[in-house]
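Record type: ASSEMBLY
Status: queued
Input:
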Amino acid sequence: MQDFQNMFKDLFELDDAMDKYEWIIDYGAGTVGLAHKYHTDQTLVKGCTSPLWLAREESGCIAAWGKSSIVNGMASMICAWYNQASPQQQMDFSLNTLTDIGLAPLLSMGRQNGVANLIAKIKTL
Amino acid sequence: MREYFPFFKRRQDIIYLDSAATSQTLFSVVEDMQDFMLSNKSNAHRSGNSMGTYVDQQYQSSKELIGKWLNIDKPEQRIVFNSGTTQGLNDAAQLIMSAMSSGVVFVGIDSHHSLILPWTQSDNAKWRVVFIELDKDGRLDLNDLETKIKAEPMAVSKVIAVNAVSNVLGLINDLNGIKKIALEYAAVSVIDASQIISKRQVNFSGFDFVAWSWHKLYGPMGLGCLLIDPIWLNFDPVRPGGGTVTHVGLDSVTWTTNASKFESGTQNLAAICVLPKLVTWLIEHQADIETHDKNLAKIINDQIPLSQFTPISKTDSGLISLEPALGTVEDYTMMLDAKNIMIRSGKLCAEPLINQISQGALLRLSWGCYTTRQEIEIALDNLGGIHARLSKHV
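Status: finished
Output:
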């Protein structure tokens, strides 16, 4: 049950924002992501400019897939962390968690709204 | 030109390529707004005191100079101040719909939402919208317009509502051709000039309504103009209020006989009072502004890396929209932002066009008279670099 920053410490060791983006893209590209059969209107996360789907798969794990490489990576990180987090960590998790560890500035305000909706949706699954 | 804009001294780290949404501010605008707010804040129209008289003079001088700049006779009868293009286009639509019982509105498919919505959202179901399609080059197809107008012989009234330059395509529509068709078919003409007016000298005579915003014209936020044909002074204001009348009795109203008839309530005087110097500057630099715009359009048309980005069209003026070969526009926008390069992406408030010509979202780079060739080239280089980064993950 690692905290978010420890789980992705390689990312936080990078200084350059472009390198951070590339790490996030790479992370998303390296995950399987939400299976296509789950890409439905019900699993679509509202408030995202490009489509992002989020659902609990048959395995019981939460997974996401986004068309934007950066959003896909970020959502994949959030899902991977959430799947191993303690109930208390899950309950405490919010957009502020990402802000506090310096990730939110990588997201535009519009995208932050999308991520906030992603987190809210995760908590309903 | 750059030396006239304090932003670029204060933010040397930024490459600003979002001028089609909002331009940076001329130095005199900042100074004059501060001067107004700190030393001259007062209201216009019949104050009876010297501070109010000063504001009146600035207000009148603004209209006179706009008249000189755009070659408009009797500007006091033709120029309406408002909050911006959106309000101008809404007011024009409301005025037309209040004056005419029903009709068909021929709207350019390349229009900004603010030109479309006043007609489609109207409670008045007697008005119908017909879209004008684009020709093969991406400009409004005037043959299509004429064909569609001819197909509506029974329409009680006709309105042609188009933009001079699309905020997605950067292509200059044939305003003279549109004016000719409007005259031939007795159609009311409404022009969204918000993208062209900061770039080119245009003859707006002969159009019923022309709207623009000053925040795209190196001026303040929250101020626009609606240029009207004086014939519309014969109709009652759609937003009556203070400043629109000369007399109010218990059972009668006398409206003013000039364009202030359509300027109800206290106007954005802090913004209006900066116009004398701003418009004087525009008059002095008009030729340079136009040449600079044409030069940048040529550079960007020649240098788009076509293997990585598809330009929706070549540009004439002010902006270019691109569709990336891979990745989403959000990826590019966020990564350019990390390099302090400010562009805009998405549907660009022109969803009917965007959905017709793209996968649903575009990148837009737009410039002003202060934008340098190097800035355009740096942005294009970075777009190429992002494409390379993204292509590693495909």
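Annotation: Helices of chain A lie at 4-7, 9-12, 17-29, 69-84, 87-92, 95-100, 109-122.
Annotation: Residues 69-84 of chain A form the longest helix (16 residues).
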